[in-house]
Write a structure and sequence with these properties.
By secondary structure, the protein is an alpha+beta fold. It is built from seven helices and 22 strands.
């Protein structure tokens, strides 16, 4: 006999004995009214004494049975396997009115899916980002993509970003991030050899591509070392995480003049983290050296590198009128020496075409870049005000006797944006003014003003953004033969972050 059967029979016997004794007690109580007729000689006191003894014995036995049953119930019995009917059995058709006995197929219950570290990670997190949007009107005109121009874009549904990432930490004070993207941007990057042949190009890429691929050593908060592919530390709007931006798209000056993601190494940290732990965010620095050829390009265009650095100062952070108030100031610089064929604007459009529109700038001959920028971010409860100025000079240089094939120029621009929560942490009103001067021909300025609403369903994890952008071109206004000089666009986006 199995252990399970033995326990089952013990429980059955216990319940049976308890039922029998209770029945006898009830019978004895029911017998009381008829006792005088059956035994007239017996006194009332004797009958009551016997009944009291019988009840006492029954109570003792009942207590013993309750303890025994309670002990048996505490013993765990193995769970029976889950029973599920296959879809084939459930939907089987039986013709001619014949009956069919539906038999269940026994299947084991599936265990939940879970992720475990593959090595010695202390922490491993799987995440991702999905941004799907609708664009209508003069699509991307604020980036210099004018209707009827060489890079016109029509109304569309767009998978702006579709990413998956893994982040983790090790006991040896290392953290890392591996992130890739299915939906690529409209910007193409081509690197050419000095003789004009193509070295590498992603102008037609549609497949999965790498984004942030880095490891960071953080043993000392004052001195971190980061290696791999990530955003070079230049430009506040550029290094701000994509899911946390108040605006749908970055400003044209940011896209055109910042280096975006690069492969290299940087040191960074908070110098006051150990000395003044409560004031650790007062000062933060970044300094890096990179190939300067863009993301997912492992070759360098020459033996020169791109140098980028940034300094952030938390001017103050306090509370006023029960609201958080803060001001952060930033400054950054960049220097790079590039060969012919290097894309100088990997994230946006910089070259001015004959009709005033803009396209990506590829150096026709060897070039040298020097850039700098300043920014400020003010926060007061539901209100945020952010401004940034960027400037970059691109100069031609002679290499191996090859004369320059373009003229020196300086591109610059700025933006100012404000936002206010109409409904705290839920409905946000947003506006931005931006101006960009490519600096290559007279009156080539491009200006835009943006207004819209941001609806936070669950913070930045789930939100809807609806923006209207009005753009006008000074070049088109000065040269009306090329077409309209004012453009309008509407963008609606749904963002999911997990």
């Amino acid at each position: 006999m199995s252990h399970k059967q033995h326990r089952s029979r013990s429980v059955t016997r216990a319940y049976g004995l308890r039922f029998t004794l209770c029945s006898l007690a009830l019978a004895a109580l029911a017998f009381i009214p008829f006792a005088p007729e059956l035994s007239a000689a017996q006194s009332d006191s004797e009958r009551l004494e016997k009944l009291e003894r019988a009840v006492e014995l029954l109570q003792q036995r009942n207590a013993e049975l309750e303890r025994e049953v309670s002990s048996l119930k505490k013993q765990k019995e193995p769970k029976a396997p889950a029973v599920a009917l296959s879809s084939e059995k459930r939907s089987k058709f039986v013709p001619d009115g014949k009956s069919y006995a539906d038999k269940g197929e026994i299947t084991e219950e599936k265990k939940p899916v879970y992720v475990v570290p593959g090595a010695s990670e202390l922490k491993l997190t799987l995440g991702g980002l999905l941004q799907t949007q609708y664009e209508a009107g003069d699509v991307s005109a604020f980036e210099g993509r004018f209707p009827d121009g060489p890079n016109e874009i029509h109304d569309r549904f767009r998978q702006r970003r579709a990413r998956i990432n893994i982040t983790g930490e090790f006991a040896e004070q290392f953290d890392f991030k591996l992130e890739g993207e299915y939906a690529q941007s409209d910007v193409g990057i081509t690197v050419r050899n000095p003789n004009g042949t193509t070295q590498v190009s992603n102008t037609t890429r549609t497949a999965f591509g790498g984004l942030d691929l880095w490891a960071n050593w953080h043993k000392f908060p004052e001195f971190n070392v980061k290696v791999g592919q990530y955003k070079a530390p230049f430009g506040l709007e550029q290094i701000s995480p994509d899911p946390k931006l108040f605006t749908l798209e970055r400003s044209q000056v940011t896209s055109a003049l910042t280096p975006e993601r690069q492969i290299g190494v940087q040191i960074w940290g908070k110098p006051l983290a150990s000395v003044f732990p409560e004031q650790k965010d007062v000062l933060t620095y970044y300094a890096g050296i990179f190939n300067g050829t863009g993301r997912n390009i492992t070759v360098n265009d020459n033996n020169e590198y791109m140098y980028a650095g940034r300094l952030e100062v938390q001017a103050f952070k306090t509370k006023a009128l029960n609201e958080e108030v803060s001001l952060k100031l930033g400054a950054n610089g960049l220097s790079s020496r590039d060969d012919a064929g290097t894309v100088l604007s990997p994230a946006g459009n910089l070259r001015v075409n004959t009709d005033g529109s803009l396209t990506a700038y590829t150096a026709a001959s060897a070039a040298e870049r020097e850039a700098y920028g300043f920014d400020a971010a003010f926060h007061f409860g539901p209100f945020d005000l952010i401004g940034e100025y960027l400037s970059e000079s691109i100069d031609a240089r002679t290499v191996n006797g090859v004369a320059p094939l373009f003229q020196d120029f300086r591109a610059e621009g700025y933006y100012i944006q404000g936002s206010y929560f109409i409904i705290p942490k839920t409905l946000q009103l947003f506006t931005k003014y931006e101006s960009f001067n490519p600096g290559q021909v007279a009156n080539d300025n491009l200006m835009s003003i943006t207004g819209g609403l941001n609806y936070y369903i669950h913070g930045d994890d789930i939100k809807i953004l609806a923006h209207y952008i009005h753009t006008w071109s000074n070049f088109r206004e000065s040269n009306p033969a090329f077409g309209s000089d004012e453009f309008d666009e509407f963008i609606l986006r749904l963002q999911l972050q997990y």
